[in-house]
Automatic annotation (TrEMBL):
<keyword id="KW-0812">Transmembrane</keyword>
<feature type="transmembrane region" description="Helical">
    <location>
        <begin position="143"/>
        <end position="161"/>
    </location>
</feature>
<feature type="transmembrane region" description="Helical">
    <location>
        <begin position="93"/>
        <end position="112"/>
    </location>
</feature>
<protein>
    <recommendedName>
        <fullName>Ascorbate-specific PTS system EIIC component</fullName>
    </recommendedName>
</protein>
<keyword id="KW-0598">Phosphotransferase system</keyword>
<dbReference type="Pfam" id="PF03611">
    <property type="entry name" value="EIIC-GAT"/>
</dbReference>
<comment type="function">
    <text>The phosphoenolpyruvate-dependent sugar phosphotransferase system (sugar PTS), a major carbohydrate active transport system, catalyzes the phosphorylation of incoming sugar substrates concomitantly with their translocation across the cell membrane. The enzyme II UlaABC PTS system is involved in ascorbate transport.</text>
</comment>
<dbReference type="InterPro" id="IPR004703">
    <property type="entry name" value="PTS_sugar-sp_permease"/>
</dbReference>
<comment type="similarity">
    <text>Belongs to the UlaA family.</text>
</comment>
<dbReference type="InterPro" id="IPR051562">
    <property type="entry name" value="Ascorbate-PTS_EIIC"/>
</dbReference>
<dbReference type="GO" id="GO:0005886">
    <property type="term" value="C:plasma membrane"/>
</dbReference>
<keyword id="KW-1003">Cell membrane</keyword>
<keyword id="KW-0813">Transport</keyword>
<keyword id="KW-0762">Sugar transport</keyword>
<feature type="transmembrane region" description="Helical">
    <location>
        <begin position="12"/>
        <end position="29"/>
    </location>
</feature>
<keyword id="KW-1133">Transmembrane helix</keyword>
<comment type="subunit">
    <text>Homodimer.</text>
</comment>
Length: 162
């Protein structure tokens, strides 16, 4: 029984699978045909993996630039690139970021439904970027477990509604 539980946890710990599961559930709730559900879920997994791979390429390609810049000007710094930061964050905070993103979107919808703040934030890559940063900030602030997800989701949902 423990082996089955470990297998399920390992599968759901992969951010691409977790986001695809959310897309799968959303398509089922919308009563889409089976072909649309299947293709939508597969597209979500592939899109997430392509985004991660592309961000990793950006990170690796900018590393030599940072060294050249340091040598040429004698200063040490970083190349600010949000995709690069998200790529690095996915390795350690991917599951937490994905859960913050999903729960934050739900909070955003609830805020829009029950308050005067009627804005629904639909820019997914910005939502994921903010969720990744919230996951990092809350984790390094020694907030652990579900509390990270709850606080992150509330903050993200409020940011998206304002």
């Amino acid at each position: 029984m423990q082996a089955i539980l470990n297998f399920i946890v390992d599968i759901l710990s992969q951010p691409a699978i977790l986001v695809a599961l959310i897309a799968f559930i959303g398509l089922i709730v919308q009563k889409k045909p089976a072909a649309t559900i299947t293709s939508g879920t597969i597209k979500t997994i592939l899109g997430f993996l392509i985004l991660s791979a592309g961000a990793d390429v950006v990170v690796r390609s900018l590393e030599p630039f940072g060294k050249i810049f340091q040598h040429a000007f004698g200063v040490q710094g970083i190349v600010p690139n949000n995709e690069a930061i998200v790529s690095l964050a996915l390795k350690d905070f991917g599951t937490t970021a994905a859960l913050i993103m999903v729960c934050g979107m739900i909070v955003n919808i609830l805020i829009a439904r029950f308050t005067n703040l009627k804005y629904i934030f639909l820019t997914g890559h910005h939502t994921f970027y903010m969720a990744a940063f919230l996951a990092i900030i809350l984790t390094v602030s020694h907030i652990k477990g579900w509390l990270t997800i709850v606080i992150g989701a509330l903050v993200l949902g409020l940011i998206m509604a304002v």
